[in-house]
Amino acid sequence: MNFNFTEEQLMIQQAARDFAQRELIKDVIERDEKAEYPTQHVKTMAELGFLGMLVDPRWDGGGMDTVSYVLAMEEISKVDASCSVIMSVNNSLVCYGLEAFGNDVQREKYLKPLARGEKIGAFLLSEPEAGSDATRQHTLAEDKGDYYLVNGTKNWITNGNTAGTYLVIAQTHPEKGHKGINCLIVDRNSEGISVGPHENKMGMRSSDTHSVMFTDVKVPKENRIGEDGFGFKFAMKTLEGGRIGIAAQALGIASGALERAVQYAKERKAFGTVIANHQAIAFKLADMAVKVENARNLCLKAAWLKDQHLPYGVASSYAKYYAAEIAMEVTTQAVQIHGGYGYVKEYHVERLMREAKLTQIYEGTSEIQQIVISRDLLKD
Amino acid sequence: MKILVCMSNVPDTTTKVRFTDGNTRLDAAGIQWIINPWDELALTRALELKDAGAISAVEVINVGPALTEATLRKALAIGADKAWRIDAETADGYQVAQLLAQWLKDQAFDILLAGVESSDYNSSGVGIMLAALAGIPSVSNVSGLSIEGGQVILKREIEGGQQQLKAHGPFLAVVQKGIALEPRIPSMRGIMTARTKPLEVVPAHPVAARTAYQAFSLPQPKGSCRMVDPEQPDELFRLLHEEARVI
Amino acid sequence: MSNILYLAEHREGSFRKPALELASYAHALARQTGGQAIALVLGKVGADQLSRLGSYGTQHILHAAEGSFDPMDNGIWSTAVAEAAIKVSARLVVFSASLQGRAIAPAVAVRLEAGLVAGVNGLPSSMQPLTVERKVYSGKALATVVVHTEKAVMTLSPNTFGLKESSGDAVAEVWTVPTLPSLSFEVLETSRSEGKLLLSEADVVVSAGRGMKGHEHWKPVEDLATVLGAATACSRPVSDEGWRPHGEHVGQTGKIIAPNLYFALGISGAVQHIAGVSSSKVIVAVNKDPEAPIFGAADYGILGDVHTVVPALVEAAKRFKENS
Fold first, then answer.
1. Which homologous superfamily is B2-216 in?
2. How do residues B120-153 score in pLDDT, each as one tens digit?
3. Architecture of the CATH domain A121-229
4. CB 3.0 to 4.6 Å from C57: which of A334, B130, C166, C206, for a disulfide?
């Protein structure tokens, strides 16, 4: 066992912290309020290499390990989960999917610009009537010989409008059920794609969430990832890695709220002393800290397993389920500790609380994680 | 043209300092070490000049034990070409300057940069002592450094104003606020390339310190703040006059 | 010999408070060592000004009137001071911790093979070995430093010792520095903001921060400074935003100042800011946030919006000045 980070991991953590505390913090409240996309910050994240940090340098990525990724995601999410979800989707879904399951031609053409952050990727799985149950894809990718003809609608797509490259999950052989599903690499500028309005969300308001409509979109055959019918397995495998990203995001939201609560409790006075001296507050902080530390350990464990090329799917569900649940609890308590100040935007914690809610829902709801975990427990 | 940046390894500026061993040395437990902020700005400016093609290489040097290598590697990650560490635990700035000067004899740099002071000992001594020992000219209070057509132009602060100078190398500049706007954040690519950049460890010659830190103490905590009613601004001036006696 | 040599800096021929404070300090040191307090003056200064040093305990003045001391060059100045120190057999050489003093003290220390103690804040607790206190960790701690060498060079933090008048006459000796190096650079341009009170010399400093919300709101800040005869300053975000010139930034990475009275208007008081102003004798904070850390460092505080409080302070300051 070794709980020490390497010097490089610490440098990456510090780099992410500096970026978040120096840049993101400046306009995070305003962007949240106006639901404004962080164009400049995404550009900086690309320059710093956060958008493709996990990708092999051969494909223009940063070649960093998953532990470093968790540390960076935590720091960025402490300040701005809208930016960290952009980073998470690009890294752990789109880049990872292409790197792990694409061929060299696809990697050269699509992965490289994504890893450099010149283009942003989006992962199009959810549909108006298919969220948790991803086997029922209504979007069709009809086999027309040398191309696929795509028709259908995808929902809740992070980076939906800004992405240059879509990974689209669609059904080619409805009769085969989930074994007929494919994943296609689709250029955002293809004819027949229209993007719905920006969703007016509760939290993570400055990330760019849209529905995307496909009407007779032609996609070349060579843009299919893997064999015919590999799409569902592709989606499930990719989401396993994605869960580590969102788990680390939830962790960051929680630890950001904890830091703010600790700071506030040491400054705010009531009944003649700082509120940290009141046991009601001090014990709350202790409970929050233990939860955050547990979530951190679960995230790092899943990341470590992935880095060791050991099975990490269930571990990533443990991490995502727990981190999302405690993010909700910890942010709620952080608002409580702040009292009235916590309920106004200036103090950040109400925003963290709104952001936390989404981590229980997307990239596999908490209930889906419970299914994964319990099935693993109960399997013969 | 080559630039050398002298770097100091200091506790993060937000650190709450504590002392140990009968208040004779800093309690290093839990301290995060960083590049001295002024040295980091010096390095930032040097790298900007390199990016602009005005100079060919930037090297950094530090005098300290192995634990200071983390900050040297950060310097490499943000773009320095080579790092040096003179392996020594030092007691004062003179010792540091002597070790640097001895090492410098076999080196050829056109511009040497040192931050105005380290945020731990605040002595502003090492840079100037190094220049004096090495027998090269120095310019202090430098808030701007540019190279135009091979000419080195410095901007320095003087009492009540500013001065532009043309300097001829080799020389040492003690740099301060204004030399660069904000330190760089290392990129993933930079961190990756730092793995293969040279970090050379140099053994130290014995040099005696001229001063010693005998003991440390923490300043008396300030008494509580007396609040004045915003509706009674005259009361403030009465207090400043009668109680504090500063006006 | 146990003489004390100090560099008496002047601006266009007249001595300012830091030079007189240093003269007082050198005199106090000389009384401890039993030697003389000797001033070195570089460049032309009139006899009436020179005699002022005598009233702060200086017995002897080396006046190097001839020689190119402007522009200030580290090599030229440090040679002059070191030569003077040798000439008068000074055991201690002291400077103000000013722009110039900080720049040349280390070079003088090297030339004299003397230990350097920068930024001392009072008299030594022992002369043998020389033991003196100074601030470290940007004001977060104090350290007692012992000098191993026979000679020592010190710089004195401004506004820590104060002015101490003493009766006496200084004998001025015109002196030519034997061999001065040549100027090591070429001056292209010099700009001075004329008549403006220097931050480093001001007894009162009015400083404002991000709470002002923009450069267009600085009028009351400047008005308050004018009424109080104060210099203006600002916090880091303000100079970073370009609302005020960089020269006004006080704090750990800007100027470190120690006025008698410091006004922090709309400055939250990050540790880095406090580090630059904590040596002020009295700090007044105005902030609308009762939790702002600046109140922890302040002696007097007003809880309120700077945009209404500062104009009210300007009027109150005017009334105070009229009545006093």
1. HUPs (3.40.50.620)
2. 989 899 999 999 999 999 999 999 999 998 899 9
3. Beta Barrel (2.40)
4. C166
Shortest distance between the Cα of B165 and any Cα of chain C, in A, equals: 4
Q: Which residue, among A262, A267, A344, would best test binding to C if mutated, counting the most C CBs under 10 Å from its CB?
A: A267
ipTM computed for the complex: 0.94
Shortest alpha-carbon distance between residue A226 and chain C (Å): 52
Tell whether B74 is within 8 A of chain A (Cβ).
Answer: yes
How do the domains of chain B map onto residue ranges?
2-216
Q: Structural domain boundaries of chain A?
A: 7-115, 121-229, 233-378
Asked if C293 lies within 8 A of A267 by C-beta distance, the reply is yes
Which residues from chain B sit within 8 angstroms of residue A15, using beta carbons? 185-187, 191
Last residue of a domain, one of C157, C174, C191: C174
Q: What is the mean pLDDT of residues C47-62?
A: 95
Residue B66 at interface with chain A, using a CB cutoff of 8 Å: no
Helix (H, G, I), strand (E, B) or coil at C57: coil
Identify the CATH homologous superfamily for domain A233-378.
Butyryl-CoA Dehydrogenase, subunit A, domain 3 (1.20.140.10)
